[in-house]
Structure formats: structure tokens, C-alpha cells
Amino acid sequence: MKDAIQEQIDAKWTQFKGRLKEAYGALTDSDLDRFEGRRDQLVGYLSETTGEVREQIEEKINAWLDGTGYTFEKK
């Protein structure tokens, strides 16, 4: 059984994934789950798949992080 802290982290990740999927409609949960906690890899993947500049992606991610409270940690 998950503890309360892990449940909060999971909920924030789910909310953050929702923001990403709204912005990048072709993304799936399985695409995003590969990058949970791995910001650099996520940014690189989004840049490669969309052609968008990394700095633009970083700005969007920062705004979504502020709104969801999710934080990337190394796993």
C-alpha cells in the first residue's frame, strides 16, 4: 500500500501529465511514464518529436510545474 506522500507525488505527476497531453496531443501515458522524474530526457524527447526548441519546452514545463506542484527528482 502506498503511503500518503507517494500518493501525493503520483497525483501531481498525473496532473502534470495531463498538462503535457493537452499541449502535445500525440503523447500517451506510456510515453510520459518513461520520463517520470527525468526532466532532461522528457525535454529531449519532446524536442525531438515536435521540433520545438528546448528553451520553449523548458518555459512551458516550468509554468506547468508551478501549477501542479510536481517536482522532478532523479530516480
Count of separate DSSP helical elements: 4
CATH superfamily (homologous) name: YjbJ
Overall SS class: mainly alpha
- Give me the strand/helix succession: HHHH
Given as residue ranges, the uncertain stretches (5+ residues, pLDDT < 50) are none
Largest sheet: none
Would you spell out the secondary-structure blueprint of this structure?
Blueprint: H1 4-23, H2 29-33, H3 39-50, H4 54-68
Q: Can you tell me about this structure?
A:
This protein is mainly α and 75 residues long. It has a single domain (4-68), classed as Orthogonal Bundle (Protein Yjbj, Chain: A), CATH 1.10.1470. The protein is 69% helix and 0% strand. The chain has 4 helices and no strands. It has helices spanning 4-23, 29-33, 39-50, 54-68. Helix 1 (4-23) crosses helix 4. It is globular, with a radius of gyration of 12 Å. The two termini are 20 Å apart.
Descriptive tags:
75 residues, mainly alpha, Protein Yjbj, Chain: A, 4 helices, globular
Summarize the structure.
The chain has 75 residues and is mostly helical. The protein has helices at 4-23, 29-33, 39-50, 54-68. Helix 1 (4-23) packs across helix 4 (54-68).
